[in-house]
Amino acid sequence: MRLQTEEQPEEQPEFWLPASAAPLTSSTPGCRLVEFQVGLRSLPYLADHGFHDMVVLPGAFHIELVRRIHRELFDRDAVSLRHIEFENPVILNDDDVAITVRVEERENGRVAYELFEASSDFVRQSPDAQPCVRLQVDLGATTFADEVPEHTAPIEIADDFYQRLRDNGNQYGPHFQILASISQSRSQVVGRFADAAAVNAGLLTPPLLDAASQLLSAF
Q1: Is 79 helix (H, G, I), strand (E, B) or coil?
Q2: CA 128: distance to chain centroid?
Q3: Is residue 105 within 8 Å of 113, Cβ to Cβ?
Q4: H helix or E strand, kind and range, residue 128
Q5: Which site among 45, 55, 75, 114 is 20 to 30 Å from 173 CA-CA?
Q6: How confident is the prediction along the chain (219 residues), in pLDDT tens digits per residue?
Q7: 98: three-class secondary structure by DSSP
Q8: Are 53 and 100 in contact (CB under 8 A)?
């Protein structure tokens, strides 16, 4: 899987992501660790991302967390993300869980990120620990603009769209119910948001990223 995004404003409201943490050195040369505490108490909006009666940390949350770390460490946006692999889901409850991100600069001009449901001490002492998410970011990538093909007329999302997703086990609450209509070409799908406020002044929030996977559910 590959993801490319436009540059985003530097400020990301703490409503969406946990507070920033200072990176720590790892036992592996060239690696840094960043630990966060994530849970429904500290980030209650995540309760709106359910699957079969469990609250699952969105894949979009992992991606945007990496994008923020990348911005803070390298003073540039992560606009090209490659080899995104989701290995294990993170199930949330009222108690916070530790999420540690391991950052490693590679010789090929990319930065490798691995996210663990574990403390930084555990990750430091366990170099072979299994991450829940792994991906790479191109250090030298810049923004780009592809030619947007002509799309069909927008199709309004029916009132039962999110109910049908819920029947399939995808239990989206209000913070993640943001699509209003869709249109498509042979190679692209475009969504319109129900509320302009969802765009959050141009910031790429986890619900906005999550909407990309919701678009696929419309077909």
Answers
A1: coil
A2: 24
A3: no
A4: none
A5: 114
A6: 344 444 444 444 557 888 877 777 666 667 899 999 999 999 999 999 999 999 999 999 999 999 999 988 888 888 788 899 999 999 999 899 999 999 999 888 899 999 999 999 999 998 889 999 999 998 876 554 455 555 566 666 656 788 888 899 999 999 998 888 777 766 677 777 776 555 555 567 888 889 888 887 756
A7: strand
A8: no
